[in-house]
Design brief:
A 3-stranded antiparallel beta sheet has the order 1-9-6. Strands 2-5 form a two-stranded antiparallel ribbon. The protein has a two-stranded antiparallel ribbon with strand order 3-4. The chain has 346 residues and is mainly alpha-helical. It is globular and about 55 Å long. The protein has one domain: Orthogonal Bundle (Cytochrome p450), CATH 1.10.630. α1 runs antiparallel to α2, α2 packs across α8 and α4 crosses α6. Helix content is 51%, strand content 10%. β7 and β8 form a beta hairpin.
Length: 346
């Protein structure tokens, strides 16, 4: 179970919600064409995450205006934000702060309306309203709004980026794409009925594609922790207060750990002795006490989206172009992520 309160019952419902959101969103693409896959999946990830985690009230408010506010808030997530004081009058900082205020005001209204109604709904908003600190103090509206914003943005960058890279890897390897489509029929039925959570767990090849995408294109290059006590490593002492960093991008490509390390090979995960048992050879979601609590939701979300897309479309690279990596952003997004698609015939 996730610390967010999500359990198997929630995931079963989430699969249905995400499938419906994906179908509705991509119907606007039509039968064929070329589109920016990253932009589309970034919007869809926001919508599906809100539907699953926020609830109907907040999801119903996610119109184009709110989507732009999230984009402005997201624009403040940059190298400058890490290196420079947040009060500097940079355009991206001003947009970020304005968007933050406006989104919080929206969440204030929703929270106050729920409190006044006395209605009890099984969603994250209600969980936060009912939650208390160890001393018994309840969360105030400002804290709830901040957590709702953080909940949505925490995995938005990583999931949209990973979903996009996964699509391009499958578009580049047509045989792999067809194997994933065949797996849909084998696991779910020839007539491809609506997805359910139990079938999703049986999509082993699709999951291996996701794992290999996370290995070769981990969305975050560096993970940092502060040393709270003196630590010794390789003969060096790390003083209290200093940062300790690990890079998934490096760990996932170590030549003494990964066979044919630069190749996209989902079937490598069929090997039970993968990475020779190295403890931190594979860390896309971090490790230890602060491992990402959204990992299970991310797998359900991305697998459901791509299960749906594989049923809807056949994908190709545009003139053989496979995106290069944009290293200028905190999350390593694909450059010029335009993909070619056409409606799949059963």
């Amino acid at each position: 179970m996730l610390k967010t309160g999500l359990n198997i019952a929630h995931f079963r419902e989430h699969v249905k919600i995400i499938e419906a959101e994906t179908k509705e969103y991509f119907q606007r693409w039509g039968d064929s064409g070329e589109r920016n896959l990253f932009e589309a999946l970034s919007e869809l990830i926001i919508l599906t995450a809100s539907s699953c985690l926020h609830g109907k009230e907040i999801r119903s408010m996610l119109n184009e205006r709110v989507a732009q506010l999230y984009a402005d808030l997201d624009g403040g997530f940059s190298h400058a934000a890490w290196l420079l004081p947040g009060w500097l009058p940079l355009p991206s900082f001003r947009k970020r702060d304005r968007a933050h205020r406006e989104i919080k005001n929206i969440f204030f209204k929703v929270t106050q309306k729920r409190r006044q109604s006395g209605e009890k709904v099984d969603d994250i908003l209600q969980t936060l309203i009912d939650a208390t600190y160890k001393d018994g103090r309840p969360l105030n509206d400002n804290e709830i709004a901040g957590m709702l914003i953080g909940l949505l943005l925490a995995g938005q960058h990583t999931s949209s980026t990973t979903s996009s890279w996964m699509g391009f890897f499958m578009a580049r390897d047509k045989s792999l794409q067809e194997r994933c489509y065949a797996e849909q029929k084998a696991a779910c039925g020839e007539d491809l009925p609506p997805l359910d959570y139990d079938q999703l767990k049986d999509l082993n090849l699709l999951e291996r594609c996701l794992k290999e995408t996370l290995r070769l294109r981990p969305p975050i290059m560096t993970m940092m922790r502060m040393a709270r006590s003196p630590q010794t490593a390789a003969g060096y002492t790390i003083p209290v207060g200093h940062q300790v960093c690990v890079s998934p991008t490096v760990n996932h490509r170590l030549c003494d750990t990964w066979d044919k390390r630069l190749e996209f090979n989902p079937d490598r995960y069929l090997d039970e002795n993968l990475a020779a048992g190295e403890k931190f050879a594979y860390v896309p979601f971090g490790a230890g006490r602060h491992r990402c609590i959204g990992e299970n939701f991310a797998y359900v979300q991305i697998k459901t989206i791509w299960s749906t897309l594989l049923r809807m479309y056949d994908f190709d690279l545009v003139d053989g172009y496979f995106p290069t990596i944009n290293y200028t952003t905190m999350i390593h997004t694909p450059n010029n992520p335009v993909i070619r698609y056409r409606k799949r015939t059963q």
